[in-house]
Design a protein that fits this description.
By secondary structure, the chain is an alpha+beta fold. Helices cover about 45% and strands about 20% of the residues. The longest helix is centred in the last third of the chain and has 12 residues.
């Protein structure tokens, strides 16, 4: 089973990245945090940690910028009713550190901010993982430790803008990729205008 991929990052697109190893491009589904971490590494060699999900009709690879994010992903998908896409959506909304904080503080309400996560699922995540997260070792890469801004927490205005744009049919991961570096003090209207102006430039 794949533990990691070391190769050239050739593409970042919506909710995945592509890493070329030995002439083969591996599509790795990734959170917005991982995408943002690697966005300045296009056409350079990277190391990305992986989780492989084998289904009857497909083999999906999920990529993570550090082992801590990977460990949190595996914990999330161990919860009944939380699939790989939901796990990735949660990690696109919250950094691993913030997720641990939410679980430890019984803040299931915050998890409902994630598209597709209802109150019952959020409560189940907190209930099933509260004891488990105490044993999670924080394994963060040196570069991430230096650059704490890699873990970007959305402001309330950003969350509202994301929901509005989701209702228009735009991809949540692509929206977050675009607004990740915007000022958290921007209004909802300003954020939406920025996304509508720039979203097609990345296609």
């Amino acid at each position: 089973m794949l533990y990691n991929l070391r190769g050239t990052l050739i593409l970042i697109k919506e909710n995945f990245v592509v890493v070329e190893c030995g002439g083969v491009g591996y599509k790795c589904f990734a959170s917005s945090i991982t995408q943002n971490f690697y966005k300045s590494h296009i056409n350079t060699e990277i190391n990305i940690y992986t989780y492989v999900n084998i289904r009857q009709d497909a083999i999906d690879i999920f990529g993570f910028c550090d082992l801590f994010e990977l460990e949190c992903f595996k914990l999330l998908i161990s919860v009944s009713g939380v699939g790989s896409k939901a796990g990735l959506s949660i990690l696109s909304q919250f950094s691993p550190q913030k997720l641990i904080e939410i679980i430890c503080s019984n803040d299931s309400k915050s998890l409902t901010l994630v598209s597709g996560i209802g109150a019952k699922t959020a409560q189940r995540i907190v209930l099933e993982l509260k004891d488990k997260v105490k044993n999670v070792e924080i394994l963060t890469s040196p570069e991430l430790k230096i650059n704490n801004n890699t873990y970007i927490e959305s402001s309330q205005n950003k969350n509202q803008a994301i929901k509005a744009l989701n209702s228009l049919g735009y991809s949540q991961s692509e929206i977050k990729y675009l607004i990740s570096e915007l000022d958290n003090n921007m209004s909802v209207e300003e954020i939406i205008k920025f996304v509508l102006k720039n979203i097609n430039k990345n296609k």
